[in-house]
Write a structure and sequence with these properties.
UDP N-Acetylglucosamine Acyltransferase, domain 1, four-stranded parallel sheet, 2 domains, 15 strands, seven-stranded mixed sheet
Length: 212
C-alpha cells in the first residue's frame, strides 16, 4: 500500500471526523480533487455540501477545490446566488417572494456575479473561514481561522483576517516557483510515498533534490 484509499469516505477509521469529500459530493457544479478532506467531529464531515450556500444551478457558477486540501470545520463557501442587485435604489430581492413581486426579477447580467470559486491544491483552510463568491486561492496557501476571504490569495502565502490579507510568503520565490513546477499532488501514489520525507521536510535542499 502507498497510502490510504482515495475512494474511501472516512480513510482512517480511528479519526471518523475526517471525510474525503470528493466521495460524498452530489452537486454537479462542485468539483473536489482526491485526498481533500473536511474535518467536523459533529457530522463526520459528510455534510460538507451544506456549507456551500446560495449555489443555484441556473446561475452556473462552480466551486472547484484541488487535491490534498485540508478544510477545517465551520467553513462556508458563499456562492454567487447570494449576490443582490446593487445598481437599483433597493437591494431587497422582491422577486424571490412571488405573489406578483416576481415581475421585478433581475436578469443575470444585472447581478454582480463573480465567476467560479477556485481553491488550489495543498491548501489549508482553518476553522470557520468564509470564502466569498469568485475568490481564487492559490496552491499551497494557508488561510487562518475565522477569516473572511473576499479577494484572491496568491500561492504559498499565509493569509488571515477580515478581510483576509496576506501576512507573509511561506517560502522564498525560488522554492515557491519550484513547488509550482513540481506539482507533487499530481504524482502517482507510489511516487508520493517514496518522497514523503522530502515533502514533509522544511529543508529546501531536500526539496530541490526531488526530480520534477
Amino acid at each position: 500500500m502507498f497510502g490510504p484509499n482515495p475512494d474511501a469516505i472516512h480513510p482512517n477509521e480511528k479519526i471518523p471526523s475526517i471525510c474525503y469529500i470528493q466521495n460524498i459530493i452530489t452537486r454537479p457544479n462542485i468539483q473536489v480533487g482526491a485526498y481533500t478532506y473536511y474535518d467536523d467531529a459533529a457530522t463526520g464531515g459528510e455534510d460538507f455540501e451544506s456549507h456551500v450556500t446560495h449555489h443555484y444551478p441556473f446561475i452556473g457558477d462552480r466551486l472547484i477545490i484541488g487535491k490534498f486540501c485540508a478544510i477545517g470545520k465551520g467553513v462556508e463557501f458563499v456562492m454567487n446566488g447570494a449576490n443582490h442587485r446593487m445598481a437599483s435604489v433597493t437591494t431587497y430581492p422582491f422577486n424571490i417572494f412571488g405573489h406578483g413581486w416576481e415581475a421585478c426579477t433581475p436578469t443575470l447580467d444585472e447581478l454582480p456575479l463573480k465567476g467560479d470559486t477556485v481553491v488550489g491544491n495543498d491548501v489549508w483552510i482553518g476553522q470557520n473561514v468564509t470564502v466569498m463568491p469568485g475568490v481564487q486561492i492559490g496552491d499551497g496557501a494557508i488561510i487562518g481561522a475565522d477569516s473572511v476571504v473576499a479577494s484572491d490569495i496568491p500561492p504559498y502565502t499565509v493569509a488571515a483576517g477580515n478581510p483576509c490579507r496576506v501576512i507573509r510568503p511561506r517560502f522564498d520565490q525560488a522554492l515557491t516557483n519550484y513547488l509550482l513546477e513540481l506539482r507533487w499532488w499530481d504524482w502517482e501514489p507510489e511516487k508520493i510515498f517514496r518522497n514523503l520525507e522530502a515533502l514533509c521536510s522544511g529543508n529546501p535542499e531536500q526539496i530541490f533534490s526531488i526530480a520534477p
